[in-house]
Specification:
10 strands; 7 helices; 4-stranded mixed beta sheet; alpha/beta; Rossmann fold; single chain; about 200 residues; binds guanosine-5'-monophosphate; 6-stranded mixed beta sheet
Amino acid sequence: MTDSSSTSTGSLTVISGPTAVGKGTVVQRLRAEHPELVVSISATTRPARPGERHGHDYWFVTDDEFDQLIASDGLLEWASVHGSARYGTPRRPVQDATSEGRTVLLEIDLQGARQVRQALPNAQFIFLTPPSWEELVRRLTDRDTETPEQQARRLETARVELADAQEFDHVVVNGQIEETVTELVGLLGLCTHST
Ligand code: 5GP
């Protein structure tokens, strides 16, 4: 365990976890309740899902644009996730926000988390885990956004990722969302609201 996420220039926290564990929902809640938190917007080559907005959920880019981001060293980390699309963290906004003393959160996969650890070992690393394997399978099948083949591939990745949770500074079980958010607010060092 390390408690060295804070630097004189703000702090950077990485949150990872298997597919369907609820990272998106948790991060949405943190974002809504703590507008002072800077949540990094990733670039991705996957198409937008209904309701997703360019520049809010992701920067949706072409393969060529993604190649250019890599070539210009514009990404802090990047990875091909679930054997399909590429995802990466634009470097500049993270640098700017941390140098302004802000608290920055990256929601990325395990391969990306490892790259950030190499580049920025003082960052804080949190792994979000489900209460059980059965619950993870249920969450993935209930949300019904992937084909059965895609679900099977995501679960394959999830098994490997769960086995690597001990690489992280903190493991947070995402059972009740309220409790998860409270725990993360504490780990991120965000001020709790009095109301
Ligand atoms: P989804 O397609 O469901 O939005 O995201 C799929 C996976 O990509 C999630 O596990 C998410 O954590 C990961 N991901 C999203 N943005 C990034 C990123 O910038 N870098 C990396 N390495 N993974 C990302």
